[in-house]
């Protein structure tokens, strides 16, 4: 028992120091602060900046109070999710090239249970790859976005027919914000 | 008449030098090269890096040969399009705050001919603003994406009813790549 508010385990404690350093004065982490911290962490395995688009998508995914920023709890969840994605990425990258190529992504989608046309996979690879290689940050953006769009589609596919009737506003609300 | 290949007017000539400097060895401009050049140009009116997401969206919009990169012709088109967006942004920013706020965006959409629910506008503002302000690069991303998604929707809305039936793959091909 400790009388102090905000006391944590040792691991939480070091995470908390890290969080406060990243969050700055307002005590919340926005997309740009997250980008800086992930770039410095080296998690993407490259020297280039971690994708800001991916940061935005991840925050949108975990942002339960809809502020566009993350508190400590959300930050911890994000860190756990990213570690899981990193594990997943290394499994998918079977030839250990440091990136996911077309055939690896195609196989990954099948393993995750997606059934996509070859044209759909081609379009996705073209959009998220650089010279045919998909790096960690773009891989995460791609998978998170695919999942969010699929969830959005499935929630409207009441009869499970793989076919949905959207109004214009509903379509935009689901797609503009992912 | 000049015997040299690739001779241009003086304006084109200086644009060409600029293009080759930005494009580097491969003679084409990818999203990251574009981001560096737009950040340095100061077009967004802030010191922060120009949004990479916006660069990707703009390249996708102008990339007629589907390489994910831009040649000189596409680069010139992009430059012209960006100047037009900058003009448009300054018109929309009626209180000259340097950013577009909720009511300004709402009015801009109406002027452009979009008829959107207030909830749709709210969701869009939440996604593209920082502390309620939408800056130039995010404004461009938002408008280009809205136009692309609207065009995609409208092409399928054969009866002009504001309602479209999508298959899962068609839905993903339109939304994952914008
Ligand atoms: Ca902060
Ligand atoms: Ca690989
Ligand atoms: Ca304004």
Strand fraction of chain A equals under 5%
The N- and C-terminal alpha carbons of chain A lie at a distance of 43 Å
Secondary structure tally, helices of chain A = 8
Average predicted local confidence, pLDDT of chain A: 88
Gross morphology of chain A is: globular
Number of strands of chain A: 1
Decide which structural class fits the backbone of chain A: mainly alpha
State the share of residues found in helices of chain A, binned by percent.
Answer: 55-70%
Described by its quaternary structure, the protein is homodimer
Q: What does the main sheet of chain A amount to? A: none
Kindly provide the radius of gyration of chain A, computed on alpha-carbon positions and rounded to a whole number of angstroms.
Answer: 18 Å
The unique ligands bound to this protein are: calcium ion
Instruction: Summarize the helix and strand pattern of chain A as letters.
Output: HHHHHHHEH
Low-confidence stretches of chain A: 1-8
Biggest interface goes to: A-B, 43 and 43 residues
């Amino acid at each position: 028992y400790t009388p102090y508010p905000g006391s944590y385990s040792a691991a939480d404690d070091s995470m908390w120091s890290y969080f406060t350093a990243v969050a700055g004065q307002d005590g919340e982490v926005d997309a740009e602060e997250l980008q800086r911290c992930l770039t410095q962490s080296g998690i993407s395995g490259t020297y280039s900046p971690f994708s800001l688009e991916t940061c935005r998508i991840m925050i949108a995914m975990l942002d339960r109070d809809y502020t566009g920023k993350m508190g400590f709890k959300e930050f911890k969840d994000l860190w756990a999710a990213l570690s899981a994605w990193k594990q997943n990425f290394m499994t998918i990258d079977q030839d250990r090239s440091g990136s996911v190529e077309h055939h690896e992504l195609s196989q990954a989608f099948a393993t995750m249970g997606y059934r996509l046309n070859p044209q759909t996979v081609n379009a996705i690879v073209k959009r998220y790859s650089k010279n045919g290689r998909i790096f960690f940050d773009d891989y995460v953006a791609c998978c998170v976005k695919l999942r969010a769009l699929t969830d959005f589609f499935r929630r409207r596919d009441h009869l499970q027919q793989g076919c949905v009737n959207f109004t214009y506003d509903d379509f935009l609300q689901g797609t503009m914000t992912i």
